[in-house]
Design goal:
transmembrane helix, transmembrane, DUF454, membrane, Inner membrane protein, mainly alpha
Length: about 130
């Protein structure tokens, strides 16, 4: 019972952080939603169902769970946020080796992230 309660609390915390990430440029949304989904899968099937069918968060999670892919818009936004957050960090750290290490980590992260498959969410396809 304690494990389920901890997973549910962790899931809600991740949802709160993910929701903040939609508005704050340096906080990512998708990783927190994936973590919340994982917590809810193990802690509460009802909350997991709610999250996966949420009008805002559901399509991102379903695309990931069903296809292991992200939408082009999510990829574009994430790339901008990764570069922006690392650029700010590089400007703020004083030592040159820190700057170099941040550049290496950013490069590895961007290479890994941009190798993820891209697939449009069916809900996002509007034909006129």
């Amino acid at each position: 019972m304690l494990k389920k309660t901890a997973l549910i609390c962790c899931g809600w915390l991740c949802i709160a952080l993910g929701a903040l990430g939609a508005f704050l440029p340096l906080l990512p949304t998708t990783p927190f939603l994936l973590l919340a989904s994982g917590c809810f899968m193990r802690g509460s099937p009802r909350l997991n169902h709610w999250l996966n069918h949420h009008p805002r968060f559901g399509p991102v999670l379903q695309n990931w769970h069903q296809h292991g892919a992200i939408s082009p818009m999510v990829k574009k936004r994430a790339n901008v946020m990764i570069v922006l957050s690392f650029f700010i960090s590089i400007c703020l750290v004083p030592q040159l080796w820190h700057k170099g290490l941040l550049c290496v980590v950013m490069t590895i992260l961007l290479v890994w992230f941009n190798r993820l498959p891209v697939r449009d969410n069916p809900e996002n396809n509007y034909s006129s």
